[in-house]
Design brief:
The complex is a heterodimer. By secondary structure, chain A is an alpha/beta fold. Chain A folds into 2 domains: about 160 residues, Rossmann fold, CATH 3.40.50.1100; about 220 residues, Rossmann fold (3-Layer(aba) Sandwich), CATH 3.40.50.1100. Chain A is about 40% helix and about 20% strand. Chain A is built from 15 helices and 14 strands. Chain A has a 6-stranded mixed β-sheet, sandwiched between helices. In chain A, strands 1-2-12-11 form a 4-stranded antiparallel β-sheet. In chain A, strands 7-6-5-8 form a 4-stranded parallel β-sheet, sandwiched between helices. Chain A starts with 10 loop residues before the first strand and ends in a 5-residue tail after the last helix. By secondary structure, chain B is of the alpha/beta class. Chain B has one domain: Alpha-Beta Barrel (TIM Barrel). The radius of gyration of chain B is 17 Å and the shape is globular. The chains are: A alpha/beta, B alpha/beta. At the A-B interface, β2, α1, α8 and β11 of A face α3, α5 and β6 of B.
Chain lengths: ~400, ~260
Amino acid sequence: MSYNYPDLSGHFGQFGGTYMAETLIPAVEELAAQYAHYQHDAEFKAELAYELKHYVGRPSPIYHAKRLSQHLGGAQIYLKREDLNHTGAHKINSAMGQALLAKRMGKKRVIAETGAGMHGVATATVAARFGMECIVYMGAEDIHRQAQNVFRMKLLGATVVPVESGSKTLKDACNEAIRDWVTNVESTFYIFGTAAGPHPYPMMVRDFQSIVGTEAKIQMPEMVGRQPDILLACVGGGSNAIGLFYPYIDVPNVRMIGVEAGGYGIASGKHAAPLTANAKVGVLHGNKVNLMQDENGQIIETHSISAGLDYPGVGPEHCLLKDIGRAEYVAINDDEAIAAFDALCRFEGIIPALESSHALAHAMKIAPTMSKDKVLLVNLSGRGDKDMQTVAKVKGITL
Amino acid sequence: MNRIDIRFASLKQQNRKALIPFITAGDPSREMTVPLLHALVAAGADVLELGVPFSDPMADGPTIQRASERALKLGVSLRSVLDMVAEFRKQDTTTPVVLMGYGNPIEAMGWAAFAQRAALVGVDGVLTVDFPPEESHDAFEHLQRHNIAPIFLLAPTTKESRIAQVAKLARGYVYYVSLKGVTGSGSIDLSAIEEKMPQLRKHIKLPIGVGFGIRDASTAKAVAALCDGVVVGSRIVQEIEDSNAQNVLENVGRLVKELSVAIR
């Protein structure tokens, strides 16, 4: 295998690394060591496989969106149904893996940051499943946008802490979770939501999420007799995308397209698409990545209709995949995502998450330009129940 | 030798401990920072830590977060902080100035350009909270080339092997973070510091400053007895927040005077 990242110190080329305050360095070093051990441990792997099958409901099916494809008149669109997982998104794949690791490390308290709330719900779920105390940090702005998920977390026994600093969204929730971790480092496991942050998180979250691509690699030949032509997935931090992409990196002729949040459009500056906008490389939340920042290195506020993509950075492996030309990155604006959301509801009876709607929107854009025998595989990373308030508001409806 | 080494050498001769106050540049206003620095020195500060405001201060508690937000609202950037140091140096050529903050503003400016400008205006040390030694190779080269000391943090969680590693790279002084937590949080555990100190001294031949959680003169005095310098940040920033433009210099001066008298 020619592609072999990260290196031992957690670098993906010039990206990644361990940019953390000294107090947390021993914690991430210990985590890296424990993960290095348990990822090859037969008992750990068996327990994770069991939980993924019987609790999460894996494997998730692949569904041929026939009516939508027919309507578009081009390439066939297939959906990897991560929305059918327990808790309704791909986030549980990694939350489960990390919780099993936390259990083995003797940590009885878990913390998480969340944007749309799906990672918060997944973390609260696994914490309840294993009897751990759970604290979820969530931007005050996101708490308004995602009230239903906040209630779900509370039902599951988690404490949801509103974060009032900065832009009151995902990045600020992340800051606050790091502050908690630095204070409670010995008792606490930080269940990180995406394939970013200090080493080993980008690698570990990728590995846990790779179940998505690993399954697809088996399922697609069964369904269509071959691998897809193009993989598409939305990218905020990029965990569902790297989960689908990673097992395909060494498969030739499979294109990969990561779809970022274009917000009001790249030209408006109000978006969350650091890769598409060629944002300068910088350091935030423990890793070096393409980062939306001003000329003075201050992180700028992002915008996306989808809280889960509303983040100024992106996982280091996506930065590398773009750099080496193995994956392409594009942006889809808020209104295009809403149109794709509507289309999937009407043509297929599936209500997608607004995050996943970005990936779908790009698939809908390119499908008509391709012949009918081409195959697109979209990671439908989550379901859209949580987005009812947001979508209703866009449509001028009060629920 | 730079100003930090000279200052600690002279303190050692006098058998004195260093008082190292921290303020955030641009808080409460751009105009007030240089007068505040002079007021700190007049009240007995030996080394000055000047915070470079950052949008995402992950290692800071609410007090310093708010100070950063106030400064950023006024448009204070790394470049303007360097200008403030230049202004300060017009009147004070001996008190060491250490810039403290996060790495990204420096990354954005470029380490080479930053180090050159910082040396020119009279910066003596740089502490970037989120750049551990492992990620600091490039940064070092540029700082060392301009005789600027890379200041490193050590924490209660730091293992002995890492202490030895940091000892090799550190210049100026080493900043021991006395508690697990963000700035301004918790209360200090003196016996834990006392216990850790021999392990630190075994490897670190530079002066050791201790900070985080020091809020009053009696704590400062007790901590000073265990190390070479006492860093006080959030308490001073809080005083700035609680004051107005008319009395801020006087209030901060009084507080720092109390601290400096206590540790003598």
